[in-house]
């Protein structure tokens, strides 16, 4: 019979993800409902999960689960009137988040400022292209061709700028805090198992 081992690193990473995701709810509930649309911690959470969880399942599951839980709260409260419109669109957002985690697993094998900035730019681009497929597809506001998709992307630029800002600010908080914690508590460093 195997025993579950307590892993303080995983617990701290998960608590940090949940805490920073709570900011998404706080910002949204305490502002005009669309004023801070896309100024979100979700991009930072995708980077953080991909960088620090060595277990592939946890790297993908925790960021996606945090997005799902915060979406559940938002779409049963202040975004309730948008549920019919956003359901299909959100599937594209979840795909974008999964791709963002995948990219961060490759680009953030070594966490440093240069790799973090490069990863941030790449994931914002992924979010812009992939999530806007959901905004464009079968939307009567856009022609259903390449030009319509480009029009959708252009109109999304202000939202992506906010997504970039949120990713940078929340990313600095997440990565900075965890690096400080790792320096203070060596137990949080990734442990290599001896064979």
Structural overview:
The protein has 195 residues and is an all-alpha fold. It has helices at 8-29, 42-52, 56-75, 83-107, 113-136, 146-155, 157-184. The mean pLDDT is 88. The chain has one domain (8-188). Helix 4 packs antiparallel against helix 5 (113-136), helix 5 (113-136) packs across helix 6 (146-155) and helix 5 (113-136) runs antiparallel to helix 7. The longest helix has 28 residues, at 157-184. The chain contains seven helices and no strands.
Helix/strand structural class: mainly alpha
Put simply, the count of helices is 7
The helix fraction, in percent, is over 70%
Query: Helix-strand pattern, N to C?
Result: HHHHHHH
Low-confidence runs (pLDDT<50, min 5 residues)? Answer: none
Major sheet characteristics: none
The best one-word shape is globular
How many angstroms does the end-to-end distance come to?
21 Å
The number of E-state strands comes to: 0
List strands and helices in order, with pairings:
Layout: H1 8-29, H2 42-52, H3 56-75, H4 83-107, H5 113-136, H6 146-155, H7 157-184
Helix pairs in contact: 1-2, 1-3, 2-3, 2-4, 2-7, 3-4, 4-5, 5-6, 5-7
Attribute tags:
195 residues; globular; 72% helix
What's this model, at a glance?
Helix content is 72%, strand content 0%. It is mostly helical and 195 residues long.
């Amino acid at each position: 019979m195997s025993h579950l081992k307590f892993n303080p690193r995983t617990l701290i990473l998960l608590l940090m993800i949940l805490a920073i995701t709570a900011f998404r709810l706080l910002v949204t509930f305490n502002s005009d409902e669309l004023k801070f649309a896309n100024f979100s911690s979700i991009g930072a959470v995708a980077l953080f999960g991909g960088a620090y969880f060595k277990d592939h399942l946890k790297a993908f599951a925790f960021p996606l689960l945090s997005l799902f839980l915060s979406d559940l709260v938002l779409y049963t409260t202040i975004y309730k009137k948008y549920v019919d419109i956003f359901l299909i669109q959100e599937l594209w957002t979840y795909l974008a988040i999964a791709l963002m985690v995948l990219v961060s697993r490759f680009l953030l094998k070594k966490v440093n400022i240069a790799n973090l900035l490069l990863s941030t730019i790449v994931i914002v681009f992924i979010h812009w292209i992939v999530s806007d497929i959901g905004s464009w597809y079968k939307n009567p506001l856009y022609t259903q061709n390449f030009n319509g998709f480009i029009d959708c992307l252009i109109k999304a630029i202000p939202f992506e700028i906010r997504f970039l800002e949120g990713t940078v600010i929340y990313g600095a908080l997440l990565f900075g805090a965890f690096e400080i914690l790792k320096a203070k508590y060596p137990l949080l460093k990734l442990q290599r198992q001896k064979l």
